[in-house]
Amino acid sequence: MRRILVMSAIAGILAVLALAGGDLRGDADTAEAATWNTTTVRWGPYTIPAGGEQENYLTTDNCNSLGGILLQLLGGVTCVNRSVPKPCSGTCYIGAIIPNLVYADGTTANFDTGPMLHHMVLFNRARNDPTCPKNLFGGPIQQLGALLGGNERVFAAGNERSSVDVTSQNYGYRLNSGDKLMLITDLMNMSDTTKTIYLEFTFKWTTSGVTQVRPVWLDIDNCQDSELSMGAGYSDTHKDWKATFSGTIVAIGGHGHGEAISTSAQNLSTGQYYCTSVAGYHVDSMERPGPGAGTAGHPTNHNTHEDDDPIYMDPRTMGGMMAMDVVESQTVCYPNMSFSSGQKIRIHQQYNQMESDPDNMGIMVAWVR
Fold first, then answer.
1. CA distance linking residue 4 with residue 2, whole number of Å
2. How many CA atoms lie less than 13 Å away from 259 in the CB half-sphere?
């Protein structure tokens, strides 16, 4: 997301906003084993012009608040004043999230017909993000939290549409009845006709019987726009987070762009890797990366898909040709490995690309108990 500019002249007026939306995690409920409900929620519609892109779209029900107005005037965002429905009406625990992009009739929207889910981020506006706490004078994500009350990043997805599911372990992310969700989206349309699409997410949730988890966001450009320029050839880019609490990572996955090899998370104090999330490409993709380092957390090879999915292999359409040049999948890990407050957790992002790129990402989202 482009940097959200906050003028020092308005800092005093907005300071009270920075005090709102404390951490409302609540207590974990560890009763009998959970019974899981499944609810599918749609967010939208979003209409994307032919060959166009909707970048830095913020969907929230407080665009008309003081903070929302300032974001639109100063921050380079387009604010869609619309509520983001939750999967449950009261307090519940989310155990699984399965993302998708669809048309009004429910069919999947993907490269073969034009649309691309470049990325989306789901926020809880009632809480503070642990790796990027709200701050009027910090990075864009910190300023977003200060202006709108909170900025906890719960889940993210790119066009690979990786899911998370900790229901078998009876873990859940607590969503309080008064919590407010918001979205940042970047949607693209590779076709020559306008497309109207929806984000459609399937949630598994329960009201009791789980151990609570919280999200931890790791990013090679954390608190900024999550994009860094990288030169041609091999690169291993990393950034550290000094843990402010102790916990156990129960699920973690990564996200990179074309020519990414892997995204990994390492405890620098112990040397252990929590996860190496490996990118997968169609066997005929032109953006399959060169070799990686071949060391711990840095695999030599990416994953290869030899499927017959027309979304990722049809050279007869523009969407099919472009789909062959993107990440088709990225693995998710369920490590159940701990860290302690004060230890440094490092995210590593491996690329090996033919040309330089100004907009490379390297992100991991962990759920921690």
1. 6
2. 19
Q: What is the 3-state secondary structure (H, E, C) of the chain?
A: CCCCCCCHHHHHHHHHHHCCCCCCCCCCCCCCCCCCEEEEEEEEEEEECCCCEEEEEEEECCCCCHHHHHHHHHCCCEEEECCCCCCCCCCEEEEEEECCEECCCCCECCHHHCEEEEEEEEEECCCCCCCCCCCCCCCHHHHHHHHHCCCEEEEEECCCCCCEECHHHCEEEEECCCCCEEEEEEEEECCCCCEEEEEEEEEEEECCCCEEEEEEEEECCCCCCCCEEECCEEEEEEEEEECCCCEEEEEEEEEECCCEEEEEEEECCCCCEEEEEEEEEECCCCCCCCCCCCECCECCCCEEECCCCHHHCCCCCHHHHHHCCCCCEECEECCCEEECCCCEEEEEEEEEECCCEEEECEEEEEEEC
Please name the amino acid found at residue 265.
Answer: A
Bridge-based pairing of strands 92-98 and 164-165 is: antiparallel
The token pair that represents 155 in the structure block: 């889940």
d(CA 133, CA 316): 47
pLDDT digits (tens, 9 = 90+) for 263-273: 999 999 999 99
Q: Which two tokens stand for residue 147?
A: 């202006």
Domains in the chain (CATH in brackets) are 10-213 (no CATH), 220-369 (2.60.120)
For 275-312, what is each residue's pLDDT tens digit? Answer: 999 999 877 777 778 899 999 999 999 998 766 565 65
Tokens of 368: 């921690």
Cα–Cα distance measured from residue 303 to residue 103, given in angstroms and rounded to the nearest whole number: 29
| Region 113-124 average pLDDT | 93
Q: Please give the model's pTM, rounded to 2 decimal places.
A: 0.89
pLDDT of 284 reads 75
Phi, psi of 308 (to 5 degrees): -110, 25
- Asked if 256 and 270 touch (Cβ cutoff 8 Å), the reply is no
Tokens of 307: 């499927």
